[in-house]
Amino acid sequence: MFSIDVAPFAQVHWDIGAAVGVMQRVTPDRDAGVPLPQAGPMGELHAHVALVPMLRLGPYLAYDLSPGAPDRQTTGAGLRAKLTPPLLPRPWRAWTFLEFGYARSYLPSHALAPTPSSGTGGEVGGMEGDFLDAALGIGVGAKLRGPWGLFAELAARTGFLFWGALYDRTPCGCLRDPYPGHDSFAGSLSVGVSLDL
């Protein structure tokens, strides 16, 4: 049997972290024939300040890319709450986190493949779309040396309240791809390094 020392958790006043990983976005309402977005790289920076022992709050900044023709890019920022109960023996830590923020997706301009009916393609202008984004996740980490640590996080995201040309399904009278769908759901797995003080 082991004992858990709560004191080191209560002494952490702030932390910062940087993570990289992979994210899979899901667009359930995309047009027929449009493939699901491919899993792609993601990165996130975050920082927390202790509100009370084991509960921290701070900003995050995230970016992910869904490979395709062209690559779909999403940038998000907002607030992140992190709850770190003393569940594991030292040097391990486990936590859960909640993120809520604003995200913007961008699809760069690109050439549209010729259609069988017209036999011609064309140039599609870049489109942007905005939405609110929320994530719930779990993490586990371990101290390496001094205040430095390594961690891994698994998260599930949902998007809502979409607006902008990228998410407008109505015909615009312009040349555009089939409707790519809303970024309604996403899952991610990331690893990173943290500084806890």
Categorize the overall geometry: elongated
Instruction: List the helices and strands in order.
Output: HEEEEEEEEEE
Give the biggest beta sheet. 8 strands, antiparallel, barrel
Backbone structural class: mainly beta
Radius of gyration: 20 Å
CATH architecture annotation name: Beta Barrel
Annotated CATH topology: Porin
Number of helices: 1
CATH top level label: Mainly Beta
Helicity range of the residues?
under 10%
Mean of pLDDT: 86
Q: What is the end-to-end distance?
A: 29 Å
Strand sequence of the main sheet, in spatial order? 1-2-3-4-5-8-9-10
Question: How does the SSE layout of this entry go?
Answer:
Blueprint: H1 7-10, E1 14-26, E2 40-52, E3 55-66, E4 72-83, E5 92-107, E6 110-112, E7 122-124, E8 127-145, E9 148-163, E10 185-196
Antiparallel strand pairs: 1-2, 1-10, 2-3, 3-4, 4-5, 5-8, 6-7, 8-9, 9-10
Describe the structure in your own words.
- A hairpin with a 5-residue loop joins strand 3 and strand 4 (72-83).
- The longest helix has 4 residues, at 7-10.
- The chain has one domain: Porin.
- The chain contains one helix and ten strands; from the N terminus they run H-E-E-E-E-E-E-E-E-E-E.
- The chain is mainly beta and 197 residues long.
- It has one helix at 7-10; strands at 14-26, 40-52, 55-66, 72-83, 92-107, 110-112, 122-124, 127-145, 148-163, 185-196.
- Helix content is 2%, strand content 60%.
- Strands 1-2-3-4-5-8-9-10 form an eight-stranded antiparallel β-barrel. A two-stranded antiparallel ribbon has the order 6-7.
